Amino acid sequence: MSSTPRDDLAPNPDLTTRARIRDAAVARYAREGFGVGLRAVAEDAGVSAALILHHFGSKDGLRAACDAHVLRLVREGKERALVTGGAQDLLLQLASMDEYAPLVGYALRTMQAGGAPAREFVEHFVADAEVYIAEAVAAGSMRPSRDEKARARYLTVQGLGALLLDMTLHPPDDPTDVLGVLHRYRDRMMLPAMELFTHGLMTDDRVLDAYLRYVDDAPEGQGPADLA
Length: 228
What we know:
The chain is mainly α. Helix content is 72%, strand content 0%. It is built from eleven helices and no strands.
């Protein structure tokens, strides 16, 4: 079974039936949200709705399989860019962003839907971020942090939140145009983001030192960790 997302949204006949149904569901959910019925997914995959139930048990079972698949592919892509690759691999991934549009679209639909699935999805992203950031620190491609867990959570929430806000402020004419959303977001945000992550923002440690003094002086039970 291929683990690389494809830029077309048609079912791949070389995949197993279960994988073909899953990929069709990911693409359809990315375009239209999770209100789509099983019949639409079945039509995209070239199977019957009864066969979807045979493989996944229910629509919730199909959604859980899609969640796991998307999370794995996103994790693998981030690990390649941050640890095993570098600037060249990052540029190659940006050049082939079309391939990742269904995955990002699926993640955005999950965030928009909210509720327990969205929270669980974010927690998976945070847990994965802790792993690949630790690997990047060990490889010397990323600076260490005073609080690695907090940094992983911040980067996850900041990244997803910025993309969702940008999509809200600049809604696409076609709500199914996930690829267009990604391209426009990249054009507006990628340079300042890469510059900030590479060179930082502050020219000295005064603001950080002031915050650390505040943390040290905060009454017991009122520090940032207690309020989290």
